[in-house]
Every structure is written in C-alpha cells, then in structure tokens.
Specification:
Quinone Oxidoreductase, Chain A, domain 1; single chain; 207 residues; alpha+beta; 2 domains; three-stranded antiparallel beta sheet
C-alpha cells in the first residue's frame, strides 16, 4: 500500500510503499477514501505541534470503507466509516463518563503520535469507528471527527441557545460549522482580514 510519510520537519512528504497491516481481535482494516488536512498537520510538519517521533504518517481526519474485520465484529466489509483519531482505553473513569478525549490511559492520536490516515489502509480499534450513510460523501464525512464534532460538542455543553446571541472566538472551519440560522452569532479573530483574503484567493486562484 502507499503512504505519505513525514521524515523531516519543513520538508515534503515522502511517498512510500508499505505492507498492508494485519488486524487483531477488536480491530478493523479500513481503506482510507478521504483525509482532511488542518492547521495541526501543518504545525506538526514544521515541528511546532505535538511532540511527534519521525517518520510519521500525518492525517487525523479520516473516512473510508471497511476492508476487513474479524469474527463477531459489529462492522462488515463495505461499511462506510468515520475514524475517531484518539486511541482511548474505554475503561478509565473519564472514558466511562463520555470524556474519551481526556482518557487517563490514552495510547496516542492518529497523525500526531501514531501513524495517521494519509495512507491507503489503516488498522484501527472498532471502538474508534462510526458508520455513516453512504449518501454522504467521504470528503464531507472525514470532517465529522474534528471540524464538525468539536463545535457540536461545545454547543451541546451550552444547552438550549436558540434565539440567543453568541460570540465565537477564533474564526475558521469550526466557526463555519457553528452557523445556525436560528442563532444570531458573530466572530472575533485578529486574522479576520487574512481569512477574507485567503477565501478570495481560493475562489479566484490568485497568488
């Protein structure tokens, strides 16, 4: 299989041929169909993000299709899935209370401390997979694990805010996902002009 590997900070990713991994009980093999690239990936590639040991396969926003499972699996070959990037234990008090993101025994995070989704196949715990309707594209689904889930979690913590005015600090993709026609909101960011310029360049192809 092919994998895009970061071997040196501030350098281009290297295309490598690797062996498709075998899976153990409770794991699934996923053929990656889409992987988002966010600011964290850029920071890691520059050596400014989480302390990562190189070589490393980046990518923590992945979606794909189940290619292989073991017996008695909750998934079947052909299922479309979103990949949860944080490899949590599922047994500590934080995990059992629904706070897997602060697992006391976390084993790592895909694309940060563990090889991520910029490869053709990835083996992953079944607990880290969520099925989704095939009517949704893989590109859209890949964003669900972070860009959509993070602001959704924040909104749920706020409770019923319909009809209220809100202020979002720090604009970007998360801010776009926060948008709801029933909620009046505004954003604040010191890079507002740069975001506007970047958006215009994206539309017009300017440099």
């Amino acid at each position: 299989m092919k994998a895009m590997v970061l071997k040196k900070y501030n350098d281009a990713l290297v295309l490598e041929e690797r062996i498709v991994p075998d899976i153990n009980e409770g794991e699934a093999l996923v053929r990656v169909k889409a992987c988002g690239i966010c600011a964290t990936d850029v920071k890691i590639s520059e050596g400014k993000g989480p302390k990562s040991k190189l070589p490393l396969v980046l990518g923590h926003e992945g979606a794909g299709i189940v290619a292989n499972v073991r017996k008695d699996s909750n998934f079947k070959v052909g299922d479309s899935v979103v990949i949860h990037p944080h490899i949590y234990c599922g047994k500590c008090t934080n995990c059992l209370s629904g706070n897997e993101n602060i697992c006391l025994n976390v084993k790592g995070s895909l694309g940060m401390t563990l090889d991520g989704c910029l490869e053709e196949y990835i083996k992953i715990k079944e607990d880290n997979l969520v099925k989704f309707d095939k009517k949704i594209s893989y590109e859209e689904s890949a964003l669900a694990g972070g860009t959509v889930a993070v602001p959704l979690s924040a909104i749920r913590r706020l409770g019923n805010i319909l009809g209220n005015k809100i202020l979002v600090f720090g604009l970007g993709a998360w801010d776009e996902c926060d948008t709801d026609p029933q909620i009046s909101g505004s954003g604040s960011d010191s890079l507002r002009k740069k975001f506007r310029k970047a958006g215009n360049c994206y539309k017009t192809g300017c440099r």
